[in-house]
Structures are given as C-alpha cells and as structure tokens.
Amino acid sequence: MSKKPAFPVFEVNIATLPHSGHAVALRADAAACLALAEAAGVTAFSEVEADLVFRRWRRDGVEVTGQLRAKLEQPCIITLEPVFQNISEPVKLTFIPENSKLSSPVGRADRELILDPEGDDPPDTFVGDTIDAWPAVFELLLLAIDPFPRSSAAEVAAAREQPQDMPDEKQKSPFSVLEALKTPRE
Fold this sequence. Notes:
Blueprint: E1 11-13, E2 22-27, H1 30-40, E3 44-57, E4 61-75, E5 82-97, E6 124-126, E7 130-132, H2 133-144, H3 152-161, H4 176-182
Parallel strand pairs: 5-6
Antiparallel strand pairs: 1-7, 2-3, 3-4, 4-5
C-alpha cells in the first residue's frame, strides 16, 4: 500500500507582521503537486505557485493579496484525452480571529443575512498566531479549475453530431402534440 502524499503546509506568523506587510512565495514541489492533484481530483499539477503579501487588516485581522498561478492536466469529460489548463488568478483574502466581533453577523438572530454575490467574500477565521497559507490558496485553485474540460477533438465530435437544419422539413414543436389533442377529430 503506497503512502498518501502529505498536503503542503506553510504557516505564517501573523503576531509579528510588519506594517508594510510580509511577502510570501509559495512553490509546490513534486510531492506537494502530487498531493494537491489528488485532493483536487485532477490528473496532475506541473506547477502551483502563489506570490502573497500578508498585511494587517483593521485592528486584529489579516488581509492576504497576491497572484496564484498553476498548470494542470485533467481528462476531457467526453473523450478522456488529457486537457491542459493554465490558471492565473488574483488573490484577495481576509482573516479575522475566531473570537472577533467581526466574525458574527450584525443584527438579531431572527433577521435574514444578505450577502452580495459580486462583493468580497466574508472573512475567514483563524485561531492562534499563525495562518496556514496553503488551504486558502488551494480553495481558490479549486474554484479556478474548469469543472467540465473538453479537448479540441470533443468539440469537433460534438459539432458533427448536431442535427443539421433542413429547410424543407417542418420542425415539430413539442406543443404540436397538445395542439392535436385540442382540435376535434373527424
């Protein structure tokens, strides 16, 4: 039985963040790429990297900004041929301590919480003086992966299988059967 590769860990101590921010460069080695690919359900990652800056946010929160880049391979959903994807996504995350007043929604318990789907995500919480950067980056990576990859061969096959419009033949509407029921029979 083979040993499962370990998910990468990169803890950033936020207790001593400088005012200008702390730059972090995440680079996945071969073992980390293998673990990330297994967790993401793709064939392979050839590269996963993120350049991040951790800065103080409000009083005790942390804002993480930067850029995520990845190269991956996954099977086509139709032909199972390998499909390659390059990902380049901006990173903007906010973390607050678990016991922060900002972690609970403002208002009464019986009121509805309204979130803007186009707005910023609500802050994530953390415990202690460290934040592990890899889970947050991995979550953004999962959102950027194409869930239905198609190879160029699948696109050509799908175009061939579509019915061609025949101008002489009258296309029946799905409601034509109902129309036939409505009219009296002779």
